[in-house]
Amino acid sequence: MKRVDTKSMIDQILEVADQMQPTDAPAFFYTRLRARMENEMAPAREQVWYKKPAWAIAAMTIFITLNIWMLTQAYQQKSDSKTASPGIDNFINSYQLSSSSDNFYYNQ
Amino acid sequence: MLVETCQHLVYRTALHIVQQEQEAEDVAQEVFIIAFRSVKSFRGESKLSTWLYQITIRQSLNWQRKKKASRRISFRNLLGLHEKTDNEAKDFNHPGVLSEKREEGALLFKALQKLPPNQQAAFTLLKLEGLSYAEASVILGQSVKSLEGLMHRAKENLRKELNKTLNQ
Prior knowledge:
The structure holds 2 protein chains of 2 kinds.
Chain A: H1 2-15, H2 29-41, H3 53-94, H4 103-106
Chain B: H1 2-18, H2 21-37, H3 48-72, H4 75-78, H5 102-113, H6 117-128, H7 133-140, H8 144-166
């Protein structure tokens, strides 16, 4: 009896194929297809190397580093020149090179 | 114009084999893209629908093959952990199946997935799409006689598979 039941169930299952309703494509299928085709057919935009974000960030970092370095160098030179001035002043005085020592030549 | 006329045919055929609505739409889109790219190779010796059926069957079976291969070679399987196999694939409720026959429909499509690709294609075209043997034989590139044999084997295998499922 069970065998007949299984057979009739299988027949019922196979009959489903004959009773199916036709299925339509989903709504807006054509719109999505068109968008996909336009996307695939569009030429790939090649990014120029300097427009790539990684390159831009790297260039900016180098620029800022250089600026900081140059400012540091300028500050250091300025402070060096201040500390050296007593030596230069002694030199000027010993050889009477200041403007007040112009009389040295006139008096000779 | 081509899409408007044939979109339902292509989508429906893909859905029978792929058994997932979103994936069937992707496959249907690929079919039309292939058709547009290779329209020059269409010599007009057969009907346009025949040509589209051929591309759809091929693309759908390719999709199915890739899906099965990816399931077999899944990472968890490589590690020896049990992964869901085809036997445990989700039940597919085809939108074309009458609501009172949902369960039977799910069993039918589950059994259909177990068939070899050529038998699956034959059953899809002849039973689900309702094509004649003459039309289906042109699509599948076989004689009517061999197609009849293929269909007979498909039905036998479906019965065996359903018998196994029902007696579990």
